[in-house]
Design a protein that fits this description.
Number of strands: 17
Distance between the termini: 53 Å
Strand order of the largest sheet: 6-5-4-7-12-17-16
Number of helices: 16
Mean pLDDT: 92
Largest sheet: 7 strands, mixed
Oligomer: single chain
Helix content: 25-40%
Length: 432
């Protein structure tokens, strides 16, 4: 169907403009990052606002008593089933969106490793002149926070006396959960006076924090909205993608040569910061061969899509402007299976009758699909350095936890270690 006339007539909206809407938009167009942001975070119908349940396995796993990783996998499956059975007894739901985090699977050992890193670096350069101020963005059930505070109180009471923990949570439902359950747990464990929960998007942040602080962003980058770019294979000119929602609620994709300022700035920053880096890009390879292919019959007139992390760039802006003395600690996926077509393309998936169902496009019914992106940590390290002026170090998830975790705690009887082997596709980036 030719939707060009509707694309000209329909108004352009943003995720901010849709924030107070109760129903999904129709007869409108928006940039891809706004479509993704609205799909994931709209307070009324967004994925994280209405659909998500975070799996908690109950008692921590006794890894030392398990024969091997296969047994751990089987035990995890049993606990998943029991967890969802209990939820279905209260309210059956065939579309329940359930997911887990390494914090929950490997508690308390995962949080203790993060705590060791924080305390060691705090004592190295900040103690006793400053408090240990920790911000965590997207804290889920609050498990990581509680594990960190438990460890610091147990192992270093003097540092614990100087510790403050602030959670920044965009999702009102999770913030309410944290404010009730997490504050209740913090109070029962004696941490209540250490904790503050701030229900706000990091992109709405307007408080200047001059004190040195550690900023935790664990598995947060993957759900930051991206823009989509395709390139003219001959002129190499970038075109920016938008989503059109018609009167029936169907989606159509359009590309324009007029880049909005955010996408244009990202490309400029990346070009300047990564000039010495051979990163993945749709136009990599021989320009001569690309021109030859473009002249073949039925050849596409645009490159395959590239998804650029414009929202992540905005996050670095916030750190630079409002947290000038921060030290970032972040972990996320550098590769994801079953992604849609394109460079740095997302995985788009939902759950139906307890089974994960991947699909082939991010243009899906808003709020029912997780849209998660891999992070090119080489490029992001350069972009972060260019924006904030700070130095960084990137390492694999395995290398970080080999250094900071007591790996014996998560080792099975045959010597296998799920904490080190289960997240081979994840990396850690820290400010040094």
């Amino acid at each position: 169907m030719d939707k060009a006339d509707e694309y000209k007539r329909f108004p352009t909206v943003t995720s901010d403009m849709l924030r107070h809407r109760k129903e999904r938009p129709r007869r409108a167009k928006m940039l891809m990052r706004d479509f993704i942001e609205d799909s994931l975070y709209n307070p009324s119908y967004g994925y994280f606002s209405k659909q998500v349940v975070i799996f908690t396995p109950g008692e921590p796993f006794d890894f030392n008593s398990l024969p091997d990783e296969a047994t751990f996998h089987a035990e995890l499956g049993n606990r998943y089933t029991a967890f969802e059975d209990a939820l279905d007894e209260k309210e059956p739901n065939e579309t329940r969106q359930l997911w887990h985090t390494p914090t929950e699977l490997f508690r308390p050992y995962y949080g203790e490793a993060i705590a060791r890193y924080l305390v060691a670096n705090y004592k190295l350069s900040l103690y006793p002149y400053h408090d240990l101020l920790i911000y965590e963005m997207g804290a889920g059930n609050g498990t990581l926070m509680l594990n960190i505070l438990d460890y610091i109180r147990s192992e270093d009471p003097e540092v614990y006396a100087r510790t403050k923990f602030r959670v920044i949570e965009i999702t009102t439902a999770l913030a309410s959960l944290q404010a009730n359950q997490l504050q209740r747990n913090a109070e029962s464990r004696g941490h209540a006076d250490k904790v503050q929960i701030i229900n706000k998007s990091i992109f709405d942040w307007n408080e200047y924090v001059s004190s040195p602080c550690f900023f935790l962003a664990m598995e947060v980058f993957d759900n930051f909205a991206h823009d989509v770019i395709r390139y003219d294979p001959v002129t190499e000119e970038p075109l920016q993608g938008s989503a059109l929602v018609d009167n029936d609620g169907d989606f159509f994709e359009f590309y324009s040569r007029d880049l909005d300022p955010v996408a244009a700035r990202y490309l400029q920053v990346r070009n300047a910061a990564c000039s010495a880096r051979n990163y993945n890009h749709p136009l990599r390879g021989s320009k001569f061969l690309r021109n030859m292919r473009s002249q073949l019959p039925l050849a596409p007139n645009l490159s395959k899509p590239e998804y650029i992390p414009t929202r992540l760039m905005n996050f670095f802006d916030v750190l630079r402007d409002y947290f000038p003395a921060h030290r970032l600690v972040t972990s996320d996926f550098h590769a994801l299976p079953d992604a849609v077509e394109g460079v740095n393309a997302p995985v788009v998936q939902t759950r139906w009758q307890r089974r994960t169902v991947p699909v082939r496009t991010p243009l899906v019914h808003q709020g029912f699909f997780d849209i998660l992106f891999p992070t090119d940590f080489g490029v992001m390290e350069d972009v972060y350095r260019a924006i904030t002026g700070k130095l960084t170090r990137v390492m694999t998830h395995e290398d970080f936890f080999k250094r900071w975790a007591y790996v014996e705690d998560t080792q099975t009887k045959n010597g296998e270690n799920p904490l080190l082997s289960w997240y081979k596709n994840a990396s850690v980036m820290i400010t040094v």
